[in-house]
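Q: What residues go here?
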């Protein structure tokens, strides 16, 4: 795939590691070989998946002459932390609109990403009620900033539009290159499926390079049928942007929704077990909202013999560990 036709800031200099997880594989005792793609180690303050998408989104903003970024997320949003972090590096202002998806969950003096928003020098934080139209809220903020003479650029939640999703199409190509170098035949890739850019981008990328590797998303909020539709729609838009001749098919998009628990960002026992297992066997820090629930899904699929005996399964670690410090009570 050719990404050079699009504006892109190269924030990432080297591929993130693919590591084997022998101790975790042994702990599960199921004749499955688990591997991990360490996108938690991407550059940008405290790492994580949004950096790949922001390479394209911030380049687009700069090309359009913007001097200010507006974006949105939940109260502990990793995306907001990384959009802010790269805005700082680009010498742009960054304004955040935070959605209180769980009532009363915003605390000005909270730990985790919330603390980092202040430390990284956010220009403003506006907290809105769960269910607010975030696009509207960001447009209103943009109008206000334009009236002050600024040139704002809106990045949607999670940077999950076709521009941002190209970052994960590029990641699929990066992974395939590494697997070929290692001569490692991976049967299945597991990704968290949230605002959908990661999942959609990976689906497009794997298809675009004809990888022939199965891909499954583990939902962190929505029911299966709704999430699959959202991922598919974004995958279609991304495939079209990249000029993918054979496109993506509806059946390329597969989601599991049985690991969400009571709702987005709400802890589950399986998430707590997964975070503790990864920490205790591989010394890898997951997060409570995304990678912890995705890992819980992968572990359950291993235990239920979803993968064939001896399969090589690659887990995409999307980062998020700063949020652990806002959830310490769940682990004690
Ligand atoms: C945003 C995020 C995800 C989900 O990625 P989407 O592209 O929004 O689906 C997964 N893990 C972490 C740590 C995230 O911050």
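A:
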């Amino acid at each position: 795939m050719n990404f050079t036709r699009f504006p892109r800031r190269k924030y990432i200099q080297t591929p993130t590691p693919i590591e084997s997880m022998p101790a975790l594989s042994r702990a599960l005792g199921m004749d499955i070989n688990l591997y991990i793609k360490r996108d938690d180690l991407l550059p940008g303050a405290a790492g994580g998946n949004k950096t790949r998408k922001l390479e394209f989104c911030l380049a687009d903003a700069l090309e359009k002459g913007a001097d200010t970024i507006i974006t949105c997320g939940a109260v502990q949003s990793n995306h907001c932390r990384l959009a802010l972090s790269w805005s700082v590096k680009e010498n742009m202002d960054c304004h955040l609109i935070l959605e209180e998806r769980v009532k009363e969950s915003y605390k000005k003096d909270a730990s985790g990403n919330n603390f980092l928003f202040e430390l990284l020098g956010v220009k403003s934080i506006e907290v809105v009620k769960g269910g607010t139209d975030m696009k509207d809220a960001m447009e209103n903020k943009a109008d206000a900033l334009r009236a002050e003479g600024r040139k704002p650029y809106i990045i949607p939640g999670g940077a999950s539009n076709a521009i941002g999703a190209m970052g994960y199409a590029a990641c699929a190509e990066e992974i395939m290159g590494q697997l070929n170098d290692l001569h490692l035949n991976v049967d299945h890739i597991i990704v968290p499926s949230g605002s959908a850019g990661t999942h959609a981008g990976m689906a497009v990328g794997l298809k675009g390079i004809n990888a022939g590797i199965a891909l499954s998303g583990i939902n962190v909020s929505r029911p299966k049928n709704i999430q699959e539709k959202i991922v598919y729609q974004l995958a279609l838009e991304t495939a079209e942007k990249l000029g993918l001749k054979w496109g993506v098919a509806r059946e390329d998009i597969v989601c599991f929704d049985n690991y969400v628990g009571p709702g987005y960002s709400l802890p589950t026992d399986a998430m707590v077990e997964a975070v503790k297992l990864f920490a205790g066997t591989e010394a890898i820090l997951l997060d409570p909202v995304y990678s912890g629930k995705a890992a819980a899904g992968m572990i359950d699929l291993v235990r239920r013999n979803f993968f064939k005996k001896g399969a090589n399964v690659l887990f995409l670690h999307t980062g998020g560990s700063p949020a652990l410090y806002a959830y310490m009570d769940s682990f004690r």
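A: Context that may help when evaluating the design: The mean pLDDT is 98. The pocket of pyridoxal-5'-phosphate is lined by residues 48-49, 78-79, 158, 160, 192-199, 287, 290-291, 318-320 (CB under 6 Å).
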